[in-house]
Every structure is written in structure tokens, then in C-alpha cells.
Amino acid sequence: MSNHSHVATAMHRAMKVFERMPSHGLHEDAAATIVWQGGTRMTACHASGASVDTDMPVELGGGGDCVSPGWLFRSGIGSCAATVIYMTAALEGIDIDDLEVQVGSASDTRGVLGMVDVDGTRVRPGAAELQMHIRIGARGVPAARLRALVDEALRRSPIQDVMVNHAPVVVQVQPGDRS
To answer: Nearest CA to 69 among 89, 93, 48, 43?
Structure first.
């Protein structure tokens, strides 16, 4: 059984369950727990035990030896896109030969520093623009069909959906324990 067949089989099995019992598709996503390590260094932890360290560049007071939170965000966007592209191709019986997603952005560091622009408006801390470049290949599949596959996959991307539909962020603040 090819890898895409294995993925397609698993997805069809899940779809049958969710068709019979839609409520089984609803779940709490695994939380990311971020633990401060000192300075601007953080460790993002998953319940499975997996973790990744982040830090800011030296120019902003960090050690510069880890990925930044912004890079991790772009990585999440790209990883999610690549995953749903592969999953959608598997469901459609398309054997992907080549798949690479690159996500870049343009931002103004003055925003994270709380600075204002020359006109007095606060500079946005987030990316002003995200760019996603996708290279995809599948023998015998026309470029237009691959483009349609990517478009459909991005409609299924959970991260793309959150970015487009702006899910609310509910913030709860709890005083720390100073023992």
C-alpha cells in the first residue's frame, strides 16, 4: 500500500465515523504550554513531551540561537498547508512527487518595541504581509489541476481558516506564585 493510500484509507475511515456521529469530530486541541527560561528564551511544550525553544535575535536582547516565535508561526502556517495539500491529494488519488511550502513575511520591528510612526500612529507589531510559495509536482497531473488541488487544500487548512476568519483570543491572566 502506498503512503498516500494509507493516508486516504485513514481519512475515509474517519469521514465515515464523522458522517454517522458528527459530534466525534469536535475536540479540544492539544494546548501549547510556553515556559519562560529567562530573558527572551521560551520553551513551547506539547503534552506528548515534544518541545521547541524560541528566542529573539541578539538585536532585541535574545541569544539568537533559536528560532523566533514569528518564524515558528510561519512554520506552522507552511506545515499545515503542506499537510492538507498532501492529505487532499491522497483523497483524490494523486501521487505527489514534490512538495515544498515556503512562508515569508514582511514586518516592522518598531511595532514589537511599541513605537509610533512619523505620523504618530502606533506601528503594528504583526506582519504586514505573508507570502506563501508552493512548489508541487505529480507526474501526469496538469498544472491547472495541481493549482485547483492547492486551492481546495487551503480551504481545508485549520491555520489558514483561523487567519482568514480571525478566531477570537480569550485571554485569562492568573497572578504567578512568588514562593
So the answer is: 43
